[in-house]
Structure formats: structure tokens, C-alpha cells
Amino acid sequence: MASATMVPVPVRLDACGLLLLGLASGQRAAAPGRLAAERGRGGHRWGAGAGQRRAGGVRPRDDGGVTESRGKGRAAVLSDKLNPLSYGTVTDIQCLKKLKASVDLDNKLEWTFNNNTEGSICGFNGVECWHPNENRVLSLHLGSFGLKGQFPDGLENCSSLTSLDLSSNSLSGPIPADISKRLPFITNLDLSYNNFSGEIPEALANCSYLNAISLQHNKLTGTIPGQLAALSRLDQFNVADNQLSGQIPSSLSKFPASNFANQDLCGRPLSNDCTATSSSRTGVIVGSAVGGAVITLIMVAVILFIVLRKMPAKKLKDVEENKWAKTIKGSKGVKVSMFEKSVSKMKLNDLMKATDDFTKDNIIGTGRSGTMYRATLPDGSFLAIKRLQDTQHSEDQFTSEMSTLGSVRQRNLVPLLGYCIAKNERLLVYKYMPKGSLYDNLHQQNSDKKALEWSLRLKIAIGSARGLAWLHHSCNPRILHRNISSKCILLDDDYEPKISDFGLARLMNPIDTHLSTFVNGEFGDLGYVAPEYTHTLVATPKGDVYSFGVVLLELVTREEPTHVSNAPENFKGSLVDWITYLSNNSILQDAVDKSLIGKGNDAELLQCMKIACFCVLSSPKERPTMFEVYQLLRAVGEKYHFSAADDELTMQPQNANPEDELIVAN
């Protein structure tokens, strides 16, 4: 397919001195912030110009995977991604066409399906895509658009849809009985403030990835299906102000009473039974709502204070003591479930011996998700054993999550080899990475060790980007990491990076609220958390991009994300703050690790610095996708030929059986 014509557009500078694409008059904002290479003094500038170097790039496949585009120039690859609507995924386009025809009777959406338009469906009102130019719909935010009619047609054609918001419209009729077939990967379903009627379909329980269900302020009748207990990921549920009746399923009693404000509902969390009077019931509900709001505000302040002040002490105690290991000694006969036949069958007793009962001398790392131990097997080989911290999942839920994660395989991901459940403890068995974490290699205190050479750092950056891009763009549903840092990037004997802890955020949520998801550290260590999380508390692919940008800054500067040793004593900001300050004063080069300067790599250092700056932009919409980050870093390191396998890299397409895959999103 021919490349799209590159339309000259004005550029503007961001805080890091990075050239970003602006918009010409009348041009659609379908692809903000595209990058291309522009030759300039001292190396490349990232701007609107088209680079001339040839590079093996990558391009999105129609099936959602990512394949190599061998011999294609980097600018040409980016140009391909700017092609108009005709390049889009046909099924997703049909999805939006049918949706509009069925519920947008007054043309409030202003969607036009003209192949001659510049842009794509990703620029439509209320449409969010996984990739700005891939035309695979991630979310539909169609609240308050004046939509009319019944539940929209065509949504089954949006095969990658994970979030649907139809709130505050004039939709009516039943919720489809086959909703799980129409929305198999939905994580957030908001049908609130409409006129939907009939019963809540039992098939909703088959939408196994659901995190949030909002059905309040409709005309729903009947009972709340007990089958919803199967939704193990559910952390938001609201059916207030309907005409529901009967007993509230016990599995839903963890949600606030105000979420069940229906005259004929009874049972916990409501304090009344089915014979309670309407007036007393109303008082309970209103009181719960008001009291709950006050308590929530107090909890925000208290939990944030406790987490920020006490978390380090808690982790230190966990590192120094292994009292927990003594409590599971009676379970030594418990088997370790292994995912690979090549790994010998093991029991908990084998893990205890291999780690010397999990003594602190065998600790090789600690993080938000738990503590990692080195296990020495009788044949002299090693494994890494992670003890998860604070997981509250049942055995069935935990086993289900492990089965999914155990099937995930990619060259830049640490493979999960097995797991063990012993009383209240959850142990994960991983392949051992002999070179440790990237954090230790960058910030180690041993003066005898040399700093990593630039070629190794660039290799680590490219491999890590490849792994994270695979999680974001080749899984269906995609996997969000939510905890990217230099501590979770591990290195093998050849310094090939392997991302660890992917998929663990779902296991670390002791309180089922979005608030706890943030303050309990599921969104990463301090210094890596994207600024939008402080007010949205919702994980997105662009949050992972921000965290990766901080890691990239670490690689170039060798500074820690929360403490900049090279800054003046009175500087109290983060690494991102420091980079922004230097850029504003046109001295960005001062941030580069001095051990790297003057060795012929200055242009590459500057390129990587600017890519990192692009990743940590304050606006999520301005950041690139991990797909684009990988493209750009791979082009920077083209001359090194790090691995022959790079030339054969083929990202996996969507699997034939999507039920075996995982999505981690809120």
C-alpha cells in the first residue's frame, strides 16, 4: 500500500525541547504528536521532517499483531500509519456505522465515514483507540450525547472494545441477553441514567473481565443474578434507583449500601430486611450515602499518609524477617504447580531447602508486589521465588490468574514457571536472571563495578520497549503492566532485558476500590507514576508509557527517579522535574551520565533523551504508544545489530482462543 502524502504542518516545542507536530488549518486531530527524524547539528531532531535513514521498522497488522517491515524507512513506516480511513480495521468501522445508525437519530455524534477524509475513526467524538492510527477501538465514551433507541447495534464488531459508557442518554428496552457475546472483553460497562428495562441478564456474569458495572437510574426489574459472583475482578457495582427486588447476592455485599437503593431489595450491605418500611429504608440509604462520602474523604487522607510514611518500614521488616516462612513449614508436602514440562516436579519442601527457609541472605529484590528470593537447586542451577505481598484472592481466583500468566511467553518477559499455595502464602516460581535488576546495575553502590556501557543501555532500552509493546499491542485483550520501573526489568547473562511482575497488579488489591488501587502502590513506585493517576486513579496504556519514559531517563542520566544527585542541594523535585528544568534553560546535555560523554555516542544519547521526554509529557494524549517508542528506539540502535533474532522478530497475532488471555485494566 502506498504511503500517505506527508502534509507540512507547523511544529511546537514541548518542555523537553522536543519538536511535536501541530495542526494545520482544517486538519483533523487524528494523530497528534507523530514523530519523524530531522537531521540537525549534533544529531537528529524529532520533528515533522522526514528522515532519510533506512531502518527495519514495525507496522501494525490487521489482525492486531505487530510484524516487521524489513527494509522500510522509519519515516515511511510512520507515514503508513497516517493513512486515511480506508486503512482502518473494517470490522471496527462497521461497528461504529451500525451503532450510529441505531441510536444517533439526531446526528449528535457528527461521525462521517468518508474515505477521502484525513484521519480515522480514532478521531471521532467519544472514540478511543488502542493505537491512534490502528483503528481498533479500545473505549467508547458516549455519555450525554442524546442517544435514543435500544441497546446499540454492531458492538460485536468492535472486537477489542474494553470500555463502554452510554450513560445519561435516552436509551430504553432490555439489556441484551447475549451481552457477553457482544462484549466479550469488556472491563467497564456504564449504562447508568437511561431508561433500560427488564431484568439484569444472567449472561453478564460471562463477561469475565468486568471491573465495573454501573446500572443505576434505570427501570430494571427482577432480582440481581447470583451468577455475578463469578466476576472475580469486579470492584465497582451500582444498581441504585431501579425497581429491583429480592435478596442481594452475598458476593456483592462488599459494595456500599447506597449502590443498592431499591425499595424492594434486602440483605447486606443494607441494614434492613425485606419487611422494612419504605421510610426507614430511605433513611438508611441516604445516611449511608452521606456518611460514606465523608468517610471516603477521610480515608483518602489517612491511607495516603500511611502508605507514604509506613510502606518503606513495612518492606524493610519483610526483608529482615522470615517469620512467615516458619508458619508454612507444616505444608512442606504441598506440590508446586509447574507450567513447563522441562522443569522438574517440585514440592514446597524443595523450595524451602533451596532458599534455606527463605532467609534474608537469599533475598535478591523487593518491590511493590513482594520479595524475590534466589533458590539454589541440588544440581547447582537457580530459580527465583517471589513471595507475593498482601494478596487477598481466593485459591480459585489465584489459580485462574496464574494459569493465564503462565501461558504468556515472549523473549523480553520473565517466564512464570510455576506457583505454590501454602496456607495464606502465595509463591511464584520464575526463571532466574543472573545479572539482577536494571536498577541495581544503574544505581549499585559497589565502586568496583564499572558503569554500564552505552551500547548495553541502548540494548536494554530496545528490548524492554519490545516486551512492553508486545503486552500492549499483541495480546487480545492487551495487558497493562501498571508497575514499570527499573526494578522490574531484569537482565540475563547477555544483558537481554526481561520484564517481570506483569499481570500481578490484579493480585495486590486488598481493598476493592479504585482508590486503594492507587494508594496501595499498584500503579508503581514513586517517581514512575503518571501525573493523571492522582485524579483519575485509572490505569491506561499511556500510564505505562510514562513509567517507561522515566526508565529511559534513568538509562541516559543514571539518576534515580526521586533523587537527583547531580542537582543543587535546594532542588527537591523528581528526575522528570530536573529534566524539565534543564530543558527550559537549554542545558539538557548536563543531565547525561558523564561516563557516557565524549565516546562517539552523543547523537544517540540526545535522541534517547528526547524520546524519553516525549514519553513523560504531562498530557497522556501527547505521549506516543509503546508501539511507536519501540520503533524509534530500534531505529536509534540499528547499527549495533544486537541480536540476529531481531531480524526475525514477529509479534504474536491475536490468539484463536481469546479466553486464554488476560487484560489488566480498570
TrEMBL record:
Intracellular or extracellular location(s): Membrane
Main location: membrane
UniProt keyword terms in alphabetical order: Leucine-rich repeat, Membrane, Repeat, Signal, Transmembrane, Transmembrane helix
One Pfam family in the UniProt entry: LRR_1
GO MF annotation, one: ATP binding
Residue ranges annotated for the Protein kinase domain, each copy included: 358-633
Name listed for the protein in its UniProt record: Protein kinase domain-containing protein
UniProt source species: Miscanthus lutarioriparius
Lineage start: Eukaryota, Viridiplantae, Streptophyta, Embryophyta, Tracheophyta
